[in-house]
Every structure is written in structure tokens, then in C-alpha cells.
Specification:
280 residues, alpha+beta, 4-stranded mixed sheet, 3-stranded antiparallel sheet
Length: 280
């Protein structure tokens, strides 16, 4: 019985001794780092955490060195390019030489700033983030509305007779809207005379030019359905001013064409009449 007790005590002593040896060897291999905080308390940094920090610092240092080397290589290449493109003093400089040199210096500054930004980004994060460029915006182009073509040079012998009148409503004053007596001429004739024209001018081009030259107001509107211009008013006399069916018409040589005035092209000596009628 006494021998068994001694054997147990010896085993416990040997186990304690072995544990102490293992702890002592561990402290020698991974010594703990002691730091102090603001309060003066001793803080122990675990060996694994310190090893991870050391590895991260090494990676950041390697990234910093790579970015610096790339920046220096790019600056050297740019400096070499600028030396090759700089004009010699004997050949002289053109008006834009100073601007070119300033542009190159500005490009060098932009490149250096870009590299510094990349260097700073490498310090903040080891992994690089690809940059994305916004897609260009699509700009809508407005479609201009059709307009009459400008008149060409008027020929000396190319003339037509143009008359603008409203004589047919002079006997129906009871149908006039208020104020028309101040607009309509006493004889009902706004214009009557010969006018030159160019081949290719339509009836609308001729009346539009004559009204512009004689300060006669002309109000027209392009109608896409018929592909022509519709005249709503001449001399401030508008459609429906003399009844619900009144408006402007035109005739060529006494015949009313079945098409718009901007689609009819007159000939030399034609007689064109724009007249206001009580019924369209």
C-alpha cells in the first residue's frame, strides 16, 4: 500500500515537471510582446496576431515599392519622349510650340498625380479595384420642320402678274368681324403688279417674297399630310373672319389648281391671283 502511494506521487511530480518544461520552451519560441495603453496598463499581444500584422506590413511595403518603380519608369519614358519631340533652338518654334510644351508638362503632372493616387490606394487596400467609365449619354437631335427654299436670283425677263385682293367680300360687311374695316383696303386690293421670279419658285415662294418686300403680313402653316403650305392670313385678314367658311384661295390664269400653293410652279407670263372668298 505504501509503495503504491509513493508511485502515484512520483508520477504527479514527473507530470508537473514535464508541463513546466513545455511552457518554458513555448515562451522561448513565441515571446509575447508587452505594450502599454494610455492608462499605463500592460497589454500582451499574442504571437499569432503580431505575425499577421508583420505579414500585412510586408505585403504593403512590397506593393508600395512596385507602384514607386512603375511611376519612376513611366516618368522616365515620358521624359525621353519629350526630349525627342522638343524642337532644337536653331530650327525655331512655331506659334503653338509653347502650348505643346505646356501640354506635355501638364500631361506629366497629370501622370504623376495619377501614380500618386494609385500609390495611396495601394496603401489603403492591397487588392486593386477596377475603375469603370460611364457610358456616353445619347443626345436626341431635333428634326427641323419643313420650310420653303430661298428664292434664286430673279431673271430679267422672268415675270408673272400677282394680285392679292378681297373684293368678293366688300358687299358683305355685315359678315365682317369687328375691326376688319381698319385692316381691309378701301378698294379691297392689297397688291397688284408684275414681279420677277426664278425657275423653280413656287406660287407660295412668289407671294411670300412680295409680302415681305411690301410689308404685308403673311401667316402660313406647313401641313405634313399634304406636304404643302396653307395660307391662313394675308394683311391681317384671316380665315373665318367673314363667315364660318371664308378663307384665302389662289388661281393661275383664272383656274384654281387642285394643289397647295407651294406645290404649283408657274410659267413666264402667268397671272396669279390670291383672293379671299366667303366659301372655301
Amino acid at each position: 500500500m505504501e509503495q503504491k502511494r509513493k508511485a502515484v506521487i512520483l508520477c504527479l511530480a514527473a507530470l508537473l515537471l514535464l508541463t513546466g518544461v513545455l511552457i518554458w520552451q513555448g515562451k522561448r519560441q513565441f515571446p509575447a510582446l508587452e505594450t502599454k495603453n494610455a492608462a499605463g496598463d500592460i497589454l500582451v499581444t499574442q504571437p499569432a496576431v503580431q505575425a499577421a500584422r508583420n505579414q500585412q506590413e510586408q505585403e504593403l511595403s512590397a506593393t508600395d515599392e512596385a507602384v514607386t518603380a512603375e511611376t519612376e519608369a513611366d516618368e522616365a519614358e515620358l521624359e525621353k519622349t519629350m526630349r525627342h519631340r522638343t524642337p532644337s533652338p536653331t530650327t525655331g518654334q512655331g506659334p503653338g510650340a509653347g502650348n505643346k510644351r505646356s501640354g506635355k508638362m501638364e500631361q506629366k503632372k497629370n501622370l504623376t498625380a495619377d501614380k500618386k493616387g494609385r500609390k495611396k490606394e495601394g496603401r489603403d487596400s492591397v487588392s486593386s479595384r477596377p475603375s469603370s467609365s460611364p457610358a456616353p449619354a445619347v443626345t436626341a437631335t431635333a428634326i427641323p420642320s419643313p420650310s420653303p427654299s430661298p428664292a434664286q436670283t430673279v431673271g430679267d425677263g422672268e415675270k408673272v402678274r400677282l394680285t392679292i385682293q378681297c373684293t368678293s367680300i366688300m358687299g358683305y360687311r355685315e359678315l365682317w368681324k369687328d375691326g376688319l374695316e381698319e385692316v381691309i383696303p378701301p378698294d379691297g386690293i392689297f397688291y397688284d403688279g408684275d414681279c420677277g421670279f426664278s425657275r423653280g419658285d413656287s406660287v407660295y415662294h412668289i407671294v411670300s417674297r412680295v409680302c415681305s418686300e411690301n410689308d404685308i403680313p403673311l401667316d402660313s402653316q406647313y401641313t405634313p399630310v399634304f406636304g404643302t403650305y396653307y395660307i391662313r392670313g394675308i394683311g391681317n385678314l384671316y380665315e373665318f373672319d367673314c363667315g364660318a367658311e371664308s378663307g384665302w384661295k389662289y388661281s393661275v390664269n383664272g383656274i384654281t389648281p387642285g394643289e397647295g400653293s407651294s406645290s404649283y410652279f408657274p410659267q413666264e407670263g402667268d397671272k396669279i391671283v390670291f383672293f379671299y372668298d366667303r366659301r372655301l
